[in-house]
Prior knowledge:
- The structure is a single chain.
- The chain has 123 residues and is mainly β.
- It has one domain.
- Helices cover 11% and strands 34% of the residues.
- The chain has a 3-stranded antiparallel beta sheet, with no helix packed on it. A 3-stranded mixed beta sheet has the order 4-5-8, with no helix packed on it.
Amino acid sequence: MKIRIALAIGLLASCSLVPGALGDPVPARWALAAPAGAADTQLSLTVYEVPCSSGAPIEGRTEEPRVEMGATTVTVTIRIRQRLGTQTCPLHPWPLTVLLPEPLGNRQLLDGGRVPPAPPERL
């Protein structure tokens, strides 16, 4: 029994050291990269990964953005699979275009990466 537990712990520890290994997706923060108008059906965002990632690009690690269109708000949530292992923490902005299912209208944009969702900040 002790050998199995030690083996399992060793395997778990080694998983985080595998180059390119990815963990669970976590919310990212974003800011508008360009003003958004009422007729717009796409948003130009600048995305900032919250956990440290050694400045690695988000391409290939970003889930499909979640867009919730409400009567008065549009909440956009960006989730990025985190890199496992020891990471440094440079804050790199990454461009991302998000498509809306309908025009923005007069609704307020909210960053779903904040709890509770709130208007995006300038980061």
